[in-house]
Design a protein that fits this description.
Radius of gyration: 17 Å
Number of helices: 4
Helix content: 25-40%
Shape: globular
Order of helices and strands: HHHH
């Protein structure tokens, strides 16, 4: 039996304001400034926590993201970084097995 997990996220972003109006048209990084990003991150984090780190290729994660080389000494450290930050920063990653089926 195959199970499908579908998460739909809708994010409404205000258009940047004009510098002519005296305000910057650059927005801060929503993931950095609000760790839970107003609840937007929670569904994806829940999915990743459910999936677990057993099939997370942490060596690939570190070598594919040059700024992470040597930053972690084990899969748990790399996994926590990926779940909390990397998944939302568009970092390259891979899993080495299929999503586990709930029992």
């Amino acid at each position: 039996m195959t199970h499908l997990c579908v998460v739909t996220i809708v994010l409404h972003i205000e258009p940047p304001t004009s510098q002519d109006e005296g305000t910057l048209d650059v927005r801060p990084n929503i993931w950095k400034d609000d760790p839970l990003a107003g609840g937007v991150k929670l569904p994806k984090m829940a999915y990743l926590r459910y999936r677990g780190s057993a099939c997370f290729d942490w060596q690939y994660y570190m070598t594919s993201n040059s700024d992470l080389k040597g930053a972690f000494t084990n899969v748990n450290e790399a996994w926590e970084h990926f779940v909390n930050l990397g998944a939302f920063e568009g970092r390259l990653h891979r899993f080495t097995c299929e999503m586990p089926v709930p029992t």
